[in-house]
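Hi! If you just cloned this repository, the fastest way to understand the data is to look at a raw example. We've pasted two of them here, unedited. The first protein comes first, obviously.
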Amino acid sequence: MYIVLITIAILLLIIAATGIRIVRPFERGLIERLGKFKKEVRSGLQFIIPFFDHMIKVDMREHVIDVPPQEVITKDNVVVVVDAVIYYEITDAFKSVYNVSNFEFATIKLAQTNLRNVIGELELDQTLTSRENINTKLRTVLDEATDKWGIRITRVEIKKIDPPKDIMEAMSKQMKAERTKRAAILEAEGIRQSEITRAEGERQSAILRAEGEAQAIKLVADANKYKVIAEAEGQAAAIINVFKSIHEGNPTNDLIAIKYLEALRDIANGQATKVFIPLETSSILGTVGAMAEMFKEQGKSEDGMK
């Protein structure tokens, strides 16, 4: 009897243990009772009725879906191979389980369809240079479509876009030609700038040299001007003194008058073809003539006495 009771107790414990569920922090539990949704539970220790209740755990973390590469035709009829990844997170555990049967498969097919639509509106060059726009458009379209599934698309990334081999070769040649062109332009621009800089330097050097020569000529001219002015002032002072000596009859100034005449003689000895005699010379000659007449009269009187 005791063995039967112990066995029943053990069985009951085992059955009760099967009703214990542990929900982790990033999970949500959906409990069904006899095929009908009962409630949603959060993380922690949860109990269900064995054989009557069933719990479905939903991972609420962010997930990633790798969209397989597929061929897409661009607006200018170029076939490219596009590969993308989709990041999503579940916002409503109930909708993610009961509103769609296979979310990841449905999302992949939806992404492939919208990739064809978005890239089909762009030309090849735009497709290669507008990845951010493509990512944004795809995320918006997918997020709107998956909202009723309790899913939020957080990010869509285009991993690669591969044009055909012949297009790649043509693009490579075009890029090489463009780089060669830019290099030639930069080299020519460098030579031009170098010539301009050298010409500007030579011009500045010529300006500075001319300014220096002009300054030197100006200094020499100023020095000659001061010299001529000083000599002229000296000669003017000498002439004034001689003039005063002649007209005032001051015998002490006779020597100055004689020196003035000697200076005139030295001037006459030059290579000039003309000799300028000052107006004061007439007075000097008059004095000299009077002295000569006086000496002549004196000579005659001496002869008469003899």
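Ok, and the second one:
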Amino acid sequence: MISKGPYLVTGATGFVGSAVVRQLLAIGADVRVLARPGNDRSNLTGLDVDICEGDLLNPNSLVDAVNGCEGLFHVAADYRLWTRGPDSMFRANVDGTRAILRAAINAGVKRAIYTSSVAVLGIDPTGQPSDEETPVSFDDMIGVYKQSKFRAEEAAMHEIIETGLDCVIVNPSTPIGPRDIKPTPTGRLVVEAAAGRMPAYVDTGLNVAHVDDVATGHLLAYEHGVSRRRYILGGDDMSLREILETVAICASVKPPRIRIPRAPIYPLAFCAEQWCKLTGKGEPFATVDGLKMSKKKMYFSSKRAETEIGYQHRSGRDALNDAVEWFRAQGYLNRA
């Protein structure tokens, strides 16, 4: 059983991190969270947590946060499919991971969970669901996010091996559900579809997992996972058409019926990116890297996690329904 702790959770103000915090609190653990000064803490409203202000890129600010903690859940990451400053994403995801793990080592933390992503895993060329051992290399990484998370997992494994830190790696697939306040790129897709603003789709697919199941998987990995081992925390493989149709049903809107080829979208995505760079405002509605990634279906198997740590997941439809209901209740569907 997981003890009372305390446990430090990074990224606790965000989507997956706040779900991990709630799961820890639900079993009676003491929770400490790392939060940057001035960031949005609405996901922590009403939660009995100890907030430590700090920044992953300022190692000195991590000392007090991690001291006295029994365990660490390093969930924080810069998750965007497009950014004006690629270097900042590498610093946050790679240097930040290295800094917090070193702080944990120096503080004598007993065990850590590092939240990686299925984005760093290989895609099975036959179209079958990939697993933790599907071959992959850095050259297979499309876009800054994937590249930075690949290097971040490398950095985490280096620290684990060099220092002997007891650390388990989890690779969530595509978390969906409540409290996606930003929202994430996938959350934005759900919002647009639920608001009836998604007229067409491309032929691709994702593995959809409820964010609360992913959070529970973090605790199971802490309790039962093997150090230095990866565990995919996923859900149901769904085509983009299935995802959009499910969202449409949940939101009582018409689903998109037109499947469009990628080729005509590339120049539009390029222009959208350039406009956002020029104006310094917003994010493009489509990205070149996103279109490249969509060429392959991101289907994954959670069999290892199910067998070794007892991971279970609800249906992708349940995850999408909970997401739509939360976005509706928070007024996201009414925004222009």
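That's it. A detail worth noticing about the second one: The chain has a mean pLDDT of 92.
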